[in-house]
Design a protein that fits this description.
By secondary structure, the chain is mainly beta. The protein contains 5 helices and 30 strands. It has 2 domains: 323 residues, YVTN repeat-like/Quinoprotein amine dehydrogenase (Methylamine Dehydrogenase, Chain H, 7 Propeller), CATH 2.130.10; 61 residues, no CATH class. Belongs to the WD repeat WDR55 family.
Length: 411
């Protein structure tokens, strides 16, 4: 039975975190804060703060360890890109600040130099740096709004998502070229494909199904799913989150954790699509980021000054079923979601969720009749409840109300 963890560890920072990165091997994490500092904390012991480095006068928008854990790359709201020695906190290099703020950072493998540091600006431009130096080797332009996430989809290809409602795939071997890049209406040589434009901002991304599917969280709360290599339009969608999906974290090839603006961390199965449960919540604050740490820890942060650490062991199989036993002893997700005021409905497939969204739109146009969220073939609520008890091996899963349903219920 899906479960929620009723306890978690909390680490308080000196300011609101804007990013979170775990050391690849040690029980440490580093955050960039709104005050321009890099704070490194331990996930064990009574005293967590290990170091604090004032890096910028502006916000550290994103910071990330390199694969070895020896260096930390950071970008700021003042347009700066920096490399910091993790052991000493000394700045190895800083690229010349740009007049535009940088929103996201990605250390990509591949390319002609074996790796590139990609910085996504609020303007939609992606700058590529040699991570060994401060040299800018290329500038990629095809987006008209901020870069919200990066995702490595193959050895030489990286996907970027944007607030303009599109994603783009880039061949890093072709990045080198004019630093000014290409105009919006021109194709950059490194651009593999830009997707069709959606009427919804893309906020986050995750790779599942052994690299065959890319999942993107949206401002409207839908998870859009692209097939790798087919970048024009998404092939599947999973509606249901009542608010925006700010972050998506892979658990396994068919399961992700989503962080939403309503503060909940949901466990979601994809293809087939089901809401499995809730890992925890941020007490109403939007969940801005999720990361895996060494030892199976999951870290999340929000708009307060706290990083929450969750036990990711509930998702692992140790061969003796201990994780399943622990999950079974935790609070039932259905009861917990009711206590938190999240709307519930009967279990259903992804097709039923899509039908519910389509019917909601039709009712809005016809004058706003209240939807019951079931297919026309279902006779009544009691029949739906019977189906819930009999389907899915006896398990009942939670399903969220759409904003339209919640509105009419309040009336």
């Amino acid at each position: 039975m899906a479960a929620i963890l009723d306890t978690n560890e909390q680490v308080t920072l000196s300011g609101q975190p804007f990013s979170l990165s775990f050391h690849p091997t040690q029980p440490l994490f580093t955050c960039g804060t709104v005050g321009g500092a890099l704070e490194t904390h331990s996930t064990t012991g009574s005293t967590t703060l290990k170091s604090k480095v004032q890096l910028y006068n502006a916000t550290v928008r994103h910071a990330k360890y390199d694969p070895s854990g020896d260096s930390i790359y950071a970008v700021g709201g003042n347009g700066s890109v920096s490399c910091i020695a993790a052991a000493t906190g000394a700045t190895t290099w800083t690229a010349s600040p740009n007049s535009n703020s940088i929103n996201k950072l990605h250390l990509a493998s591949g390319g002609n130099t074996g790796g590139l540091l990609l910085a996504g600006y609020d303007t939609g431009v992606i700058a590529a740096f040699d991570p060994r130096t401060s040299t800018k080797v290329g500038e990629l332009t095809c987006h008209s709004d901020y870069i919200s996430s990066f995702l490595q989809v193959s050895e030489h290809q990286t996907v970027a998502t944007s607030g303009d409602g599109t994603l783009s795939c880039w061949d890093l071997r072709k990045v080198s070229g004019p630093v000014k890049g290409a105009a919006l209406k021109q194709a950059h040589p490194a651009l593999v494909k830009r997707s069709d434009e959606l009427e919804d901002e893309l906020l986050s991304s995750c790779l599942i199904k052994h690299g065959k599917k890319v999942v993107c969280g949206t401002q409207g709360g839908t998870l859009n799913i692209w097939s790798t290599g087919t970048w024009g339009d998404f092939g599947d969608r999973f509606p249901g989150h009542p608010e925006s999906v700010e972050c998506v974290l892979k658990v396994d090839e068919e399961t992700v954790i989503t962080g939403s603006s309503d503060g909940l961390l949901r466990v979601v199965q994809l293809l087939p699509n089901k809401l499995l449960g809730v890992l925890g919540d941020h007490e109403g604050f939007p969940v801005e980021g999720l990361e895996w740490g060494a030892g199976g820890t999951i870290g999340s942060y929000s708009h307060d000054e706290v990083v929450r650490l969750w036990d990711g062991g509930v998702f692992t199989d140790d061969g003796e079923g201990e994780a399943e036993a622990e999950a079974g002893e935790a609070v039932d997700v259905v009861e917990t979601m009711r206590e938190k005021g999240v709307g519930l409905a009967g279990a259903g497939s992804d097709d039923e969720w899509e039908d519910m969204d389509e019917e909601d739109e039709e009712d809005d146009e016809e004058g706003g009749e209240k939807m019951d969220g079931i297919d026309e073939g279902d006779s009544d609520d009691s029949d739906m409840d019977d189906d819930d008890e009999e389907g899915g091996g006896g398990k009942k899963f939670a399903k969220l109300q759409t904003p339209n349903e919640a509105f009419f219920e309040d009336l």
